[in-house]
Design goal:
Blueprint: H1 2-19, H2 22-42, H3 52-59, H4 62-81, H5 90-112
């Protein structure tokens, strides 16, 4: 049984290293910006934005919400990984918390404003 616990700890550490990596942050930022850029161009020349078309294909999709969820997980993990709660790093902590609150607001809007 001890080797099973060791294997679980190793897998847990690998998963944490992936979820809280700066590489994942960069990939998420790229995908998020790309998706919003495509959604913006889909709405170009329309009277309203976002249009039902861009909502259906981009903004109301599970993969777009998954990007935002992974952002929140990544930011929360980085707060503890880089010890942003220390006084010397409060500015960076504020930036991370601001992104988290913006994304939580987006989730709440998505759930209650359909």
């Amino acid at each position: 049984m001890p080797e099973l616990n060791t294997a679980l700890i190793i897998m847990q550490n690998k998963l944490a290293n992936i979820l809280f990596s700066t590489r994942l942050t960069a990939i998420l930022f790229f995908l998020f910006a790309l998706a919003m850029g495509v959604g913006t161009f889909m709405d170009a020349g329309q009277d309203t934005s976002p249009t039902p078309f861009s909502r259906y294909w981009i903004y109301n999709t599970l993969w777009f919400e998954a990007i935002m969820a992974f952002f929140v997980i990544n930011f929360l993990g980085n707060i503890f990984r880089f010890r942003l709660y220390k006084k010397a790093k409060w500015a960076t902590l504020t930036l991370h918390l601001a992104f988290i609150f913006i994304l939580l607001g987006a989730f709440i809007t998505e759930i209650y404003w359909l």
